[in-house]
Amino acid sequence: MEFSTMFWWFSCFLIIFLFNSLIQSFKSKRNGLPLPPGTMGWPYIGETFQLYSQDPNVFFANKIKRFGSIFKSHILGCPCVMISSPEAAKFVLNKAQLFKPTFPASKERMLGKQAIFFHQGEYHANLRRLVLRTFMPEAIRNMVPNIESIAQDCLKSWDGQLITTFLEMKTFTFNVALLSIFGKDEILYREDLKRCYYILERGYNSMPINIPGTLFHKAMKARKELSQILAQILAKRRTMKTEDNDLLGSFMGKKAGLTDKQIADNIIGVIFAARDTTASVLTWIVKYLGENPSVLQAVTEEQESILKSKEENGEEKGLTWEDTKKMPITSRVIQETLRVASILSFTFREAVQDVEYEGYLIPKGWKVLPLFRNIHHSPENFKEPEKFDPSRFEVAPKPNTFMPFGNGTHACPGNELAKLEMLVLLHHLTTKYRWSMVGAQNGIQYGPFALPQNGLPIILNPKK
Ligand code: HEM
Ligand SMILES: *[C@@H]1O[C@H](CO)[C@@H](O)[C@H](O)[C@H]1NC(C)=O
């Protein structure tokens, strides 16, 4: 009796188990295609702990070694396919009809649901056209003198001080972002916007629990206040009836057809996209230049020769757009920093239908992660990938192996502005100042962009 009940239970389990495996294998062989190789870890938690308990890049590198350039995993409650081959990354980023952008709901709420990153199709294309128009070379060339004065003000305020490079670079990139959005009015709103924005960002990486007292709650309140400030700015502009060619002017144009909420979400979104990214890259540049005296020397000489030739030709002192086009060595330092630091280690997409890629099935609803950092650090794409060597960019990298600004329909529309502001700051930094790093400088922190430990404390002094 005892034995036969046990046997009965055992058979039930066995049948359920077999049936389940059958469904699983049927599911994963839709269209007769296998899933990519890889392990999924525990139910629900998957491999989240393995990913976050170590340097995420070690996790990715071990997977690639074991399973190849396309593998499956399970993180943060989502099954996903991770991709580290240049061609596959390009495929995912360019096939907008197969892969849509995807973010955690809490992040969408904080930045604003109407922000450009979260959309596709007609609405996205319209926004993108407006943003690209403001940030294309012909539009930003006129910003050089204003960017220059922001850079000079920042450097002056750091003079002789012990500073946290990342925090100070954030002030610089924030002010440049406001300039590109609000034009000359920028300075009027700086302090209010800055105060709200700093509260907002502290909540961005916190647990999304919306009860009084939490960082998230404070951030949501700051988000509301930001919208109110922006509403005032919009109202003021409407009474002025001028046609401004900054981003706000472009968003407010009749042809843009955007509501006030859409404008606010996108302004906050652009500040978010523009500030910490560019500030992290600048922080890495300061570190790499500090560690590579011969590279610093070459950059300094290039920048000094620009000053000298302007003097000899009797030109005015300030930098021009043309000057920034005569900085090949400095530009390669920026490229190599973008590669080595790869501040955006990866991005997220979601398959909107079952997709076949190279004989594998990427099931509908799965997340897909192009791993930028692993592409940039593969010895197949870059010789001695861990070495900081700007001269490698004297030869163009192989197609699709270098995508610090992404690729395809959501590629960074601010990349020209980012490069311009970095060149302008580096011009003044290297010609007028010297700096030394304080403390041991080896760790990387992610917040969420890769950053030198502690934001790189340095002491900055004027030359001579
Ligand atoms: C060095 C600094 C920067 C880096 C490394 C960077 C990188 C990126 C990357 C990789 C993407 C694509 C993400 C994806 O496909 O999922 C992106 C998108 C974007 N970036 Fe940047 N970015 C930088 C600076 C800026 C600046 C200065 C601005 C604005 C002026 C900006 C505005 C944007 C916007 C609006 C998007 C979203 C585009 C869309 O969804 O269509 N970025 N950025
Ligand atoms: C995408 O990658 C291709 C090949 O590397 C490149 O030619 C193209 O300019 C890139 N597009 C964008 C928007 O970055």
UniProtKB/TrEMBL annotation:
Keyword Nucleotide-binding recorded: no
Subcellular location per the Swiss-Prot or TrEMBL entry: Membrane
TM annotation in the entry: 6-23
EC number: 1.14.14.137
Pathway involvement of the protein, from the record: Plant hormone degradation; abscisic acid degradation
This protein's record includes keyword Ion transport: no
Database matches in InterPro entries: Cyt_P450, Cyt_P450_CS, Cyt_P450_E_grp-I, Cyt_P450_sf
Binding annotation for heme: 412
Name used for this protein in its record: (+)-abscisic acid 8'-hydroxylase
GO terms for biological process, alphabetical: abscisic acid metabolic process; sterol metabolic process
Chief place where the protein resides: membrane
Pfam families linked to this entry: p450
SUPFAM superfamilies for this protein: Cytochrome P450
Family to which this protein belongs: Belongs to the cytochrome P450 family.
Cofactor: heme
Leading EC class: oxidoreductase
Gene Ontology CC entries for this record: membrane
GO MF term set: (+)-abscisic acid 8'-hydroxylase activity; heme binding; iron ion binding
Keyword annotations from UniProtKB, A to Z: Heme, Iron, Membrane, Metal-binding, Monooxygenase, Oxidoreductase, Transmembrane, Transmembrane helix
Catalytic activity from the UniProt record: 2-cis-(+)-abscisate + reduced [NADPH--hemoprotein reductase] + O2 = (+)-8'-hydroxyabscisate + oxidized [NADPH--hemoprotein reductase] + H2O + H(+)
Membrane topology summary: Single-pass membrane protein
